[in-house]
Structure formats: C-alpha cells, structure tokens
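Class prep. Write one:
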Amino acid sequence: MCTRYISPEQREIEAFWRIDRRSNRRKDWQNLLTVFPLSLASFIRRADEVDYARELVVGQWGMIPPWSKSNVPTTARGTRLSTVNARVEGMEKAPTYKNAWARGKRCIIPATSFDEPNWETGKNVWWRFRRADGAPWGLAGLWDTWTDKETGEVWDSYTMLMLNADGHPLMGRMHKPDPTLPPDQQDKRSAVPIEAHDFDRWLTCTVDEAKEMLKVPPLELFDAGPVEA
C-alpha cells in the first residue's frame, strides 16, 4: 500500500491536465510536494454539471467516513482508521468507499512519483516509482465530501485505489512478505494509473466501465529503483 507520494507543482498540474479553474483553495493548505496520510493535496475531479470539464481541488489524503466526528478517519467506535488506500476488490461493499464508488465520485491523483517499501534485503529499503516516459502519474482515486457537524466546515477528502499485484514482476516485490502465506496469496498491492487518453473517460463513465479500467500497470510503464539517500 502507498503511504507517500510526490505531487507536481500546481502550475505543472494545470498545464499537463489543462485545467483553468479551482474550487476550494483551503486557507490551511500549504502546497506540500511530498504528501503523507492526512496531508492536504491536490486532486482532479469532474466539475459539477459541466460535461468533461476537469476541476482541480484540494482535499485530505485519507477519506473521511460519513460517521466520523472529526476529519481524522475513525471507525464507528472511534478507533483510528487508515483510508489513504482502498482495495479495489472490496470497495463496493466497504462502508467508507461504497457510496463514493456507486455515485461515480472518481478522481485522478497527480503524482510525480510514489514510494513503496522493498524488503528483499531483510530490511526496509524505500523504492521510488516514476513513469518511464517522464510524464506525471494520474493515479485512480475516489473522493467524497464530509461536513463537520460542530463547525459546519466542509472537507473534501480522497483515497488512492490499490489493486492486487501478486505475481507482478515489479510490484509483487514490494512490501514485507508474510512467511505464513504462499507467494500467490501475499496480497501485494499496486496503485492504478489512468492513461492520458482515458482521463475524461475515468471521470465521466459508468461504474461498470470504470471497473473495467482498473488494471495492474505493465512493467514497461515504470522507472523504478531505491530512493537515493
């Protein structure tokens, strides 16, 4: 699962995705390039009531469940909940994600690169994943809106979709292996890139069509290796 990535600068996002409008430049947004869980960062969604228009907004990385009492995601019992990643195979039934998925609240997460841990040496070595063609990633995500009942403040938040990558020649090497499970049942995970020709389709298509677009990226798409100290 991905827990950190690097976002392009705003001008790069606007130029690459051809976006001219923003909707919610938050006062507490610091335009951080390295994004961690619960950071505020940019994502792209379909603009309301405008066909094929892309909207650049700022939201929290870590989807806020509808029952949460604060912007920090929690279970119904108040226990901290990790919502920066959503397993594709379970999102249709997961309480946090199912409504956003069913209502077509899909987004694109711009990323210059993202990091994953590699344990092949017996210790954690962070690897960085860029696109081999030099373009930024447009990673598949879901977004939703949550309102603080005490203050009335409205929060946009998002999650990054993750697909099973067991057996993938690159992504299957990431994360600490579970010695109690066979290689084909490790539940290794990969982010899901949306290619440039599919950006608008991802944001506007039907749920069934969107599901067909969720595929583990081919090896040749990656420029990957250990993060230099």
Notes: Helices lie at 10-17, 98-102, 199-204, 207-213.
